[in-house]
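REQUEST
  id: r-88c1
  op: predict_structure
  target: ATP-binding cassette domain-containing protein
  payload:
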Amino acid sequence: MSAHLVEVKDLKQYFPIRTGWFTKTPLKAVDGVSFEIDAGETLGLVGESGCGKTTVGRTLLHLYPPTGGEVFFDGKPVNRENIHLFRKDMQMVFQDPYSSLNPRMTVEDIIGEALDIHQLYSSKAERHERVGELMSLVGLNADHARRYAHEFSGGQRQRIGIARALAVNPRFIVCDEPVSALDVSIQAQIINTFEQLQEKLGIAYLFIAHDLLVVHHMSRRIAVMYMGRIVESAPSEDLRTNPLHPYTQSLLSAVPIPDPRTARASKRIPLEGDVPSPLRMPSGCAFRTRCRFATAQCAEQKPELRDVGQGHQVACWRSVNL
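RESPONSE
  id: r-88c1
  status: 200
  body:
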């Protein structure tokens, strides 16, 4: 048995992009990401759009074949040949509840499809009963199992997606921005559902989002991504009160503060320049073209994640040298 439920080591996902008649350039969507998740724990993964968050989750589950790196589940290596052995333990809740559900299938068939594939029932009555239990578990009326997805609201559709992921009793779920497409009031309900399920079932989450407030509320630890790499990782409260990477500092300064006095006293840290093209990454640190502290060392050497104490890791020459 491993000390961690999920271990990701130097995960890479490169997509070949045609840049000429006979040439292709690798787009490094994920470039050497490593992290661990314990049983029943939530790791938050944040970053701006296009940084590779979703690709990490999909590659981890082998929805995209990894270009490189290793994934371990409960100490066992996960690869292309044996991924089918881990499908019941590792599931995903997708971002868009409007496109992730088949409009031609009833809710009972959407949720029951996983039961069919893994043969987790002995009769149709047992299947129907199990689907009803799953719908009730996520806060849906089991009597509506015969309805189609278009007959439900966005929040209800996302609950259907959660029930579908729970159908095979997984131990780990990748939550790919599961509340970003929902109204704020509905977001709170879905987040509470995730928390209740974790408390009841002991599920571990990789919670992907761009909203730092949501991730801080959900996660025990948070990893910050920029241009395909993790630039900082720390316990949630430590990251909020003591961010070390300039990118993390800028993200946190943009979080709305409800108290007007505190908001006026806080200082916004704007980012300079534009996001570089992933096909033409800057030398050294990818963030240096937008960093107010960039030095010659940042252009010459790529900083690696280093532990600065108390489980706080940062990939920044300035933070390490302080």
